[in-house]
Amino acid sequence: MSLSKSERESIILNDARGIQHPFYYVSQSKDGKIYVRKRKVPLANAESDNIKVYGKGEVHEAHIKPSVQTEPPKEQEEKKPDVLSITNQELIAKFVNFIEKQTESKNPDPPVKEVETKENVQFIENVKKQLPP
User: Fold this and answer.
1) How far apart (Å, rounded) are the C-alpha atoms in residues 18 and 102?
2) pLDDT level of residue 64 (50, 70, 90 thresholds)
């Protein structure tokens, strides 16, 4: 059974968007032609593997998503006007610690090495001054 033109085009477009079809793949020849081929083995998808298929006459329970909560939402804390969040401050602190370890210049020429090391130390001091307490 071959694909219709619209099915073929949708598979090609979705593949270009990064969405892979479970039963077909897109290939391109050396001369630039685009082919849609059937996969020998369908793609394994974690979401589709968890879907249970029931036959006629089988009774199944409705699935309830665990992410849906019946509790009323907690009051949200007021957002601080501070632009820097705690995670950003921690990231900056880690960055400064990393730079402190790398302050010594790797230039083999001694006078240039001293100048670059001084510049690095001064940069670290300026960053520390700009950090909030």
Assistant:
1) 40
2) very low
